[in-house]
Amino acid sequence: MNEFLLVIHRDLTSKDATPSPEQMQASIKPFQDWIGGIAAQNKLVNPPQRWDLGGRVIKQNSTVLNGPYAEIKESVGGLFLIRASDYDEAVEIAKGCPVLKWGAVVEVRMAMPTA
Amino acid sequence: MEANELLPQLFRTEYRKLVSVLCYLFGIEHIEQAEDIVSDTFLSATESWSLKGLPENPTGWLYTVAKNKTRNYLKRNTLFEQKLAAELNYNAPQGEEIDLDLSTKNIADSQLAMIFTVCNPCISNESQIALALNLLCGFGIQEIADAFLTTKEVIYKRVNRAKEKLKESQIKIQQPTLSEINDRLETVLTTLYLLFSEGYYSTSQNIPLRKDLCAEAMRLTHLLVENETTAKPVVNALFALMCFHASRFEARTNEQGEIILYQDQDETLWNQDLIDQGTYYLNQASTGTKLSTYHLEAGIAYWHTHKEDTPEKWENILQLYNHLLILEYSPIAALNRTFALAKTNGKQEAIREAEKLKLTDNYFYYSLLGNLYTNLDNNKALTQYEKALALAKSSADKALLLKTISCLIDP
Question: Would you kindly state one Gene Ontology biological process term found in this protein's UniProt entry (chain B) (predicted)?
């Protein structure tokens, strides 16, 4: 088993990409069920954590910018760790993310084995 | 009541109190002497009561005799007295003759101190349970062996090893300090929870014994609920959980000791008083900022006290299971969650999710799949139930599965 980082990126800046309160509400249950399903397989390493909408971006010459984005529009909406045997399995789990429907992007990264 | 009926009953309720009070006074190093004095007290009662009949106040009689025996023991054994002097001064007023304080308050304090001593992390969990049953609940070694389906020798060893360990580590029996409560409460609650589960899910066919185990776990948890320093939200949550579970005890098995499934239980056998108590303590638990697994399990158990299937009930149960699994994985919670998922999101989705669990060495896994396939594909359901049967161990589980299978073949 390997550990994978699942990062959910969402467009938090442009108005048209922000889900409506109804959409948000409707996505809570599927999201909880999705995470519950991962936990039920004993594949949840670290549960999801909510992140604020602020954030800072630090650049080469010590400039610090407000906002959670660097060049792109999407920024981190949620982040958690799961267990899976390989990328195929981790991707299969990530495909279940119900927020994909609302235009989110899920990034999957495998943890490097510790030396 | 005759002496031969009353004595075993008093032994169960008073033995543990006297032992706790004496250990509290003497310290854990002298645990055997404490037990000797109390056993001796009951021996005297057996002799005296069978000759002269019951005294007017049997409990008072036991307390007086125990006090005298303690005093004599201390006087007779000067070496013991010298060794004890330092500790006795610790707990008793200096210069006064030792008097055994058997007030309700001191009995409660002593038992509370003993719970925290027995649940010291220096001894293993299974030993803690055996020792708790022996010292705090007054169960005999044979009874404990019956409850754990093992031999007297195993339990005897377990209890003695635990006592030795406590002595070696020089654990002080005292009122838990705030920091000790914070550090050790979790272990204490685990022990009490395991004690309760041992009674509730026990494979032992001895029903009166199983009920006693649950009752003792509840009594000890109630001691913690009643003491203001230990009455934390998490303790109230555990007590609520026990109340809700215990409320269905009578309905869970028939006279032959066979398991009756939830949906077939006779609701009129559910204990409404315990349900009300559970609700009260669950409300008490709803303060503070920390959500424990006991809160979530109590919440699930609360919804199970509503027999009718409503979408609200199963949606709540599913979300509580989701949350529970995020906090702490357990195969049983995973299977129960999948059952709740079938009730809310439909059987097809639940089957897909169930098959991901791959708990292929667990007979509950196959009986869940059997249940989910029933009426969708009865042949598949049958295959699953047969796999479950091959894995089932207890005769009660096997009987239940055979009944289900015969209903499937011949509806």
Answer: DNA-templated transcription initiation
Q: Which of residues 342-381 of B touch A (CB under 8 A)?
A: 345, 353, 356-358
Question: Does position B24 have pLDDT exceeding 70, yes or no?
Answer: yes
What amino acid occupies position B341?
L
Last residue of a domain, one of B177, B201, B229: B229
Q: Provide the residue range defining the domain that includes B9.
A: 4-102
Scanning A34-93 for CB atoms below 8 A from B yields: 35-37, 39-42, 44, 47
Query: Smallest Cβ distance to A32: which of B322, B327, B334?
Result: B322
Helices (H) and strands (E) in chain B, counts: 20, 0
pLDDT in tens, B178-190: 887 888 888 889 8
Cα–Cα distance list, B22 to B63, B65, B108, B137 (Å) = 12, 13, 13, 15
Of A29, A35, A42, the CB nearest to B329: A42
- Write out residues 312-331 of B within 8 Å (CB-CB) of A: 315, 318-319, 321-323, 325-327, 329
Work out the pLDDT band at B7, boundaries 50, 70, 90: confident
| Whether residue B192 sits in one domain with residue B165 | yes
Chain B nearest-CA distance from A45, in A, is 9
* Domain shared by B123 and B214, yes or no: yes
pTM equals 0.84
Residue B390 within any structural domain of the chain:
no
Q: Do B338 and A32 touch (CB under 8 A)?
A: no
A36:B325 CB<8 A:
yes
- Domains of chain A with CATH codes: 2-13+26-110 (3.30.70.1060)
Our CA-based measurement puts residue B180 at a distance from the nearest CA of chain A, in whole angstroms, of: 28
Q: What ipTM, to 2 d.p.?
A: 0.84
DSSP at B248: T
